[in-house]
Specification:
Blueprint lengths: L24 H6 L3 E2 L10 E6 L5 E6 L14 E2 L2 E6 L10 E7 L7 E11 L1 H7 L17 E9 L11 E5 L17 E5 L3 E3 L6 H5 L2 H14 L6 E5 L4 H8 L8 E5 L4 E5 L10 H7 L3 E6 L4 H7 L3 E4 L12 E6 L4 H4 L3 E9 L9 E2 L6 H12 L18 H8 L8 E3 L4
Parallel strand pairs: 12-15, 12-17, 15-16, 17-18, 18-19
Antiparallel strand pairs: 1-4, 2-3, 5-6, 7-8, 7-10, 7-20, 8-9, 9-11, 13-14
Bound molecules: NADP nicotinamide-adenine-dinucleotide phosphate (NAP).
Length: 423
């Protein structure tokens, strides 16, 4: 696995800067460029090919002029090496280094190789980098990143549903804390099990799609585990964050389309959850009947909470939610306020804790990545009725990954911190 991150000792005309990790000759030989089928569509991005050190060809893609983000697939070959952010020691943001010649990961039979167009950061990326999960982490060095949106450029022998050229998105590590991928999404290529991916909604750009997977899977799984159902009320602690902003949306209490302009953030959001009877879409069915959705945030984000669908927006800088008279059937704690959260849950209700202390009857879970959840939500994303919330400070350029981590770690992000385009 070490070789996965290896740098070429040879000068690589596709890259600049110093190698971070030593190469193995075998890996470099094996990783010589592999042809893949052309995946370009009309109006596609320009692809510029150059000779690589191994004699293969590098493909550098430039975004379509029609969108600030990469909007379509690319044609070309898989090079031997790639640009990737990586760290070989735990610590603060200074451990992050841009490796200009990391080895492109190999794929297993059930995996596809994704040419990454956009990635998103989650708090778990920062906690993992700090060494909080080192006991169950994959070995160093690590290319961080769980969330990805990009194009399939190679498919393993047992891959049935995806093919080269497919535009996909997903959370690349099935278990966030138990052996997450060593070669993550903050790179030009990443290897992902087919079952963790879904086709990207065509209506979403790569940057928008990249912000969804881990957060929406967490919101979905949390509400399912809480047994959220028609007529129940919910309080979401941390309503403006990546998870909270999606949890509010999936609790829209009626079947009308909500067209909301958030002028402050220059965003336009539309949401709906049509009634369905399938098991997986029980979430949508249940959320229609939510009797009340409350959420907490600081003063400048109260309008956003309301726009996302909250009936009650609680300013945590002015009020203690636990001192208010209202009680809720479900409390989703995305902040780490477990002790207070249990004070506002009704008898027999559920307190879903995503971080911090767990006080009975609260319970905690760690999200499981599942492409089928994204697939089932895709029609609503595809139609534009549900949209992701990308923090307006982004998307961050690939060269600004350290700054993006710093911003995420302020704990003040609104929606998702996205990196795009890549590279
Ligand atoms: N267990 C799991 O599987 C799982 C999955 C995903 C996430 N998580 C965890 O859940 C937490 C939230 O994740 P995230 O991605 O939503 O984080 P995030 O996007 O970084 O959250 C940032 C948001 O938190 C809000 N916030 C901070 N302090 C607050 C407070 N005291 N009250 C209300 N809101 C507050 C901020 O709003 P203001 O600026 O208004 O303060 C900001 O908008 C993280 O600790 C993450 O590690 C766990």
């Amino acid at each position: 696995m070490q070789s996965l991150l290896s740098s070429s000792v040879l000068a690589n005309p596709c890259t600049t800067g110093s190698p971070l990790f030593p190469p193995t000759a075998a890996k470099l030989a094996a990783a010589a460029s592999v042809p893949v089928a052309a995946a370009a569509r009309s109006g596609a991005i320009a692809a510029v090919s150059r000779r690589s050190a191994s004699g293969g060809r590098c493909v550098v893609a430039a975004a379509s002029s029609s969108s600030p983000a990469v909007t379509t697939a690319e044609a070309g070959e898989v090079p031997a090496t790639m640009k990737a952010w990586a760290y070989d020691d735990y610590g603060d943001g200074s451990v992050l280094k841009l490796n200009d010649a990391a080895a492109v990961p190999d794929i297993a039979d059930d995996q596809v190789l994704v040419r990454v167009a956009a990635a998103a950061l989650n708090p778990v990326d920062a906690k993992r980098r700090a060494g909080k999960f080192k006991a169950t982490d994959s070995p160093l060095p690590t290319v961080p990143g769980y969330d990805v949106a990009g194009v399939v450029v190679k498919a393993g022998r047992k891959v049935k549903g995806l093919k080269e050229g497919d535009e996909v998105y997903g959370n690349i590590s099935e278990k966030a804390l138990e052996g997450p991928k060593q070669s993550g999404s903050l790179a030009e290529y990443t290897a992902v099990e087919e079952k963790l991916l879904a086709l990207k909604p065509k209506s979403l750009g790569f940057a928008q799609a990249a912000g969804l997977p881990l957060a929406i899977e967490t919101a979905h799984e949390g509400l399912e585990r809480a047994g959220f159902s028609a007529g129940k009320s919910i309080l979401i602690l941390g309503g403006a964050g990546g998870v909270g902003s999606l949890a509010i949306q999936v609790n829209q209490p009626d079947t009308h389309h909500h067209c909301i302009s958030i002028h402050q953030l220059n965003l336009h959001l539309t949401f709906t959850w049509p009634e369905r009877t399938s098991r997986t879409l029980q979430l949508a069915k249940h959320v229609y009947g939510a009797s009340k959705v409350a959420a907490t945030a600081s003063t400048p984000k109260l309008e956003l909470l309301k726009s996302l669908g909250a009936d009650v927006a609680i300013d945590y800088t002015k009020e203690n939610f636990e001192d208010l008279p209202d009680k809720y059937d479900v409390v989703l704690d995305a902040v780490g306020q477990g002790e207070k959260a249990v004070k506002v849950v009704k008898e027999g209700g559920s307190v879903v804790v995503l971080t911090g202390a767990v006080v009975p009857p609260g319970f905690r879970f760690v999200v499981t990545s599942d492409g089928s959840v994204l697939e089932k939500l895709n029609p609503y994303l595809e139609s534009g009725k549900v949209k992701p919330l990308v923090d307006p400070k982004g998307p961050f350029a690939f060269s600004q990954v350290v700054e993006a981590f710093s911003y995420l770690e302020t704990g003040r992000a609104t929606g998702k911190v996205v990196i795009s385009p890549i590279p």
